[in-house]
Specification:
Length: about 375
């Protein structure tokens, strides 16, 4: 399968021809930051409610992550919070499309331009959505995307960068020359996982397979989303800087063909959940924040997550726990990533109460029935 065909399909959706493919989305972020010249002593501002691989990419470049707290809605910082965090050492601002929701991206990109620093949009949850009429990823100097499991469309693991600021392209090409090729084992394991995902995963074995996959990937026994040393330290793992494989290119090209249908379903289900939760005065994403978004997952808050997960497990509801920690999925020792939890009270609150309703489901009525039955558990 030709990588140019895949890139072209992505370029059409993103309305941007400058696409660079990688083994994972985090590698795309690292490559972008490197091309921006981020290095020792530089500061990179980011939301304190993210995935640990984002500060990892910053730390691997010997720069310092500076976290800003999020608003409880829409789970992102606003422009003034970024502005307050800027110092003479700031090199980049990262804004994040959380669960498919971007927030003030145009203003944040403009703030960065005015201050003479770079902006990056973490679009790992947001491929296919739009913000103020333009595809997600259009406003900042560069954006990066993920095609990992459960992302807008999946290649098992995978990612890419889209670059708006042409000046960054030579730097990215230089970084890309250092990418290592995926091994035969990488490709075989990924193919087997993709097969299992497509043919074995069902609503009834979702919970069992999810915990098995997490256990195996945490211990580096299968290719995982975040593995071993990425969750315990800030030293770049060997083989991190990896190129995309043919397996991912083939899967990506195939899955893009049915992507629109899935996106529309996610959008519709997001609306259904919003209507239900707002009608019952429960925490929900206000329509003003999600008119153009595709809701990768639908975030809700519950009083007692453990109890709620047990209820969902028994009812065979495919509940997610994304961002159940501010540096997901690391549960403690956030100081290793320079995060002081006292600076992020809202992110801490959200991470203690969040669960995610499935948006890819063909049967949202089943989820609503479950939610209705356990309405008192919702905040
Ligand atoms: C907010 C955020 N940023 C970055 C990433 C990294 O993407 P990838 O797993 O493709 O490296 C993730 C992963 O899920 C994420 O949730």
């Amino acid at each position: 399968m030709n990588s140019e065909v895949y890139k072209q399909a992505l370029a059409e959706i993103l309305k941007n021809d400058n696409i660079f493919l990688y083994w994972k989305g985090r590698v795309a972020l690292y490559a972008i930051l490197k091309a921006m010249g981020v290095g020792s002593g530089d500061e990179v501002i980011l939301p304190g409610f993210t995935c640990v691989v984002v500060p990892n990419a910053i730390k691997y470049l010997d720069a310092k992550p500076i976290y800003v707290d999020v608003k409880k809605k829409p789970m992102n910082p606003d422009t003034s919070q970024y502005q307050d965090a800027i110092t003479p050492k700031t090199k980049v601002i990262i804004t994040q499309n959380t669960f498919g929701l971007s927030y003030q991206v145009d203003e944040i990109a403009e703030l960065a331009r005015k201050k003479g620093i770079y902006s990056v949009e973490d679009c790992t949850h947001g491929f296919g959505g739009t913000y103020k009429g333009k595809p997600n990823g259009s406003y900042c100097d560069a954006a990066f995307f993920s095609t990992q499991w459960n992302k807008p469309f999946s290649t098992g693991i995978g990612g890419f960068a889209s670059v708006n600021n042409q000046d960054l392209i030579p730097g990215l090409k230089t970084v890309n020359k250092k990418l290592i090729r995926p091994t035969m084992k990488d490709k075989m394991v990924l193919s087997a996982l993709l097969f299992a995902h497509d043919h074995i995963l069902t609503a009834s074995n979702y919970w069992k397979l999810r915990s098995m996959y997490r256990f195996l990937s945490k211990h580096n026994l299968v290719i995982g989303s975040s593995q071993g040393e990425e969750l315990t330290g800030v030293k770049m793992p060997k083989n991190y800087l990896k190129d995309i494989s043919e397996v991912q290119i083939k899967k990506g090209t195939e899955n893009l063909a049915s992507f629109r249908e899935l996106m529309m379903r996610r959008r519709e289900n997001g609306k259904i959940y919003t209507q239900f939760l707002s009608a019952h005065n429960k925490y929900h994403v206000d329509p003003i924040y999600h008119q153009d978004h595709c809701f990768l997952k639908y975030p809700v808050l519950v009083r007692d997550r453990q109890k709620f997960e047990e209820l969902a497990f028994n009812a065979k509801i495919e509940l997610g726990d994304w961002f159940c920690t501010p540096l997901y999925p690391v549960e403690k020792d956030w100081k290793i990533w320079d995060l002081d939890e006292n600076q992020i009270p809202n992110a801490l609150y959200l991470s203690r109460h969040i669960v995610n309703l499935p948006t890819e489901t063909q049967d949202p009525g089943r989820v609503i029935k479950f939610a209705e039955k356990h309405l008192h558990e919702f905040i």
